[in-house]
Design brief:
4-stranded antiparallel β-sheet; 126 residues
Length: 126
């Protein structure tokens, strides 16, 4: 079992940056695909980025088209953390961001994620 806690959200102006961190507990952390999803009010939870258990350079990562080139996902298996670095933020990035863990390699489907954190709010002002 994995427990996840997100942090790093906040209020930022358009064009700004934020770094989200997901801290995990559980001995099997390194075997999970870790993903970031977001949910805006009145909308469904949507995929943002995922990183597979084993990565080599940029392989093992995938991104939603809306964030490609602006967001970067990374993991530190020794520290049990997953980070989402967000640049050039836009008002449409405003949402609650959730970290999830999946046994499916590279999954972008939220139904394939068994474990979730409580979420962290990101608000981008125009």
């Amino acid at each position: 079992q994995v427990q996840l806690v997100e942090s790093g959200g906040g209020l930022v102006q358009a064009g700004g940056s934020l770094r989200l961190t997901c801290a995990a507990s559980g001995r099997a952390f390194s075997t999970y695909t870790m993903g970031w999803f977001r949910q805006a009010p009145g909308k469904e939870r949507e995929f943002v980025a995922a990183i597979s258990p084993i990565t080599w350079r940029d392989s093992g990562t995938n991104y939603a088209d809306s964030v490609k080139g602006r967001f970067t996902i990374s993991r530190d298996n020794a520290k049990y953390t997953v980070n989402l670095q967000m640049y050039d933020l836009k008002p449409e990035d405003t949402a609650v961001y959730y970290c999830g863990a999946s046994t499916r390699i590279g999954s972008s489907r939220y139904i394939e994620y068994a474990y979730w954190g409580q979420g962290t709010q990101v608000t981008v002002s125009s």
